[in-house]
């Protein structure tokens, strides 16, 4: 049984002439099963990806809250004269660095969510792209 992507199998079926109605129905049933498999694969992968993204996003948001609190603590210590200007500058630099890192994580999660939305918008195309990348995972077609 040849390994093809759904797009390749669809194009081949459209080009096949002289098929009996029974053969055409059987081949179309194979395509429908492949589309369902692609949708299921995409759904499982995207559900896992969303869970990963949510965890990273939650960590980044927690870090941003900690940075916000750190800024408050730093300013309070400076106002009370409990730290030197050099300590204030070091603390401010560290907090800014942590803030930038957390903001980069938030940006990456937004980009990852955009990818998930694209995959969810057309799960068959996403699944088919996986079949193209990994031909051994593609459904076997009898035609």
**Backbone CA Rg:** 26 Å
Distance between the ends: 8 Å
Strand content: under 5%
How many beta-strand elements? 0
Percent helix among the residues? over 70%
Low-confidence stretches: none
Spell out the blueprint of helices and strands.
Blueprint: H1 6-15, H2 21-79, H3 85-121, H4 123-133
Your description of this structure?
The chain is mainly α and 143 residues long. 82% of the residues lie in helices and 0% in strands. It is built from 4 helices and no strands. Helix 1 runs antiparallel to helix 2. The longest helix has 59 residues. The model has no long low-confidence stretch (mean pLDDT 93).
Give me a quick take on this structure:
By secondary structure, the chain is an all-alpha fold.
What are the key terms here?
single chain, 143 residues, mainly alpha, 4 helices, 82% helix, 0% strand, rod-shaped
